[in-house]
Prior knowledge:
Radius of gyration: 23 Å
Number of strands: 9
Strand content: 35-45%
Order of helices and strands: HHEEEEEEEEE
Distance between the termini: 63 Å
Number of helices: 2
Helix content: 25-40%
Structural class: alpha+beta
Shape: elongated
Amino acid sequence: MDDSQRRQRANRSLIKGLLLMTAASFGFGWALVPLYDVFCKFSGIGNAEARAGKAEAVEAVDPNREITIEFVADPASNGSFDFHPRIGKMTVHPGKLYDTAFYAKNLSAGASVAQAVPSISPGSVAKYFHKTECFCFSPQKFALGEGRFMPVRFIVDPQIPGNVDKLTLSYTLYDTTQSAPQQ
């Protein structure tokens, strides 16, 4: 076998490997959306609740138990929003529906679109925190200089483990103006 035949065989092998890698990359990319949804539903982060539908609010209040919910707001470093919770913390009874709000103001030089990404800490109990209404379910449009309170309604499941007495609901607000669909 001469040098040219070895090179052709190596090139064919390389092409087959590259085609296989391309197909595998495409398949992995295609599977990322459902995998992300499963991850979000399991971990309680992201926007999985909005796509799955709002949580049902069935009140079975546990009046003998109190849990402190801390609220944290963080504008993304590349955004231009004033963003903070209406209140810093709240004491709740599991099974009861509660309301709060977060304030956002557009500080950019024009109209903006923002998307909030929630996170519950500790992550192991995120499945016991259910939002029935949340500004994080959809992108929020802001006119130049517009500011407003955006509602969050939630209920803590009475089945939450007994050793949990504090949760943190945190939002990061991202400026998604560049990626928002133009209308």
